[in-house]
Amino acid sequence: MEIELSPIGRVESPLTDRAVAPKQGSEGAPDAWLVFEPSVSEALSDVRPGDEVIVLTWLHQADRDVLRVHPRDNPANPMRGVFSTRSQDRPNPIGLHPVEVLAVDGGRIQVRGLEAIDGTPIVDLKPQL
Known about the structure:
Elements: E1 9-12, E2 32-36, E3 52-58, E4 68-69, E5 80-81, E6 94-105, E7 108-112, E8 121-127
Antiparallel strand pairs: 1-2, 1-8, 2-7, 3-6, 3-8, 4-5, 6-7
């Protein structure tokens, strides 16, 4: 079985280095913009400021060969399998980011609480239920 993902946009953020980016959005992530491809603009028609959404990203700088990590990159934490952690290094590095919509400007959405770095591809956007 073949799976194909196509980016629908990208993250614009002041975060440029994954080594210094917050581990979670709630840990001091700056406001960021989600910039969508024009081909999906109609899908954004009902997104409003104040909405809580989940941004799914492709963590393009992840190491896909990693299966075990020290959680939070802290060697004092015992090694764990990546499927029991939020590590971005994993076989299929899909990022899951709960954020709040601050503004909508055409094909751009400003969000709060996104720890993804600048240029991260966006693969989907879903409402938090």
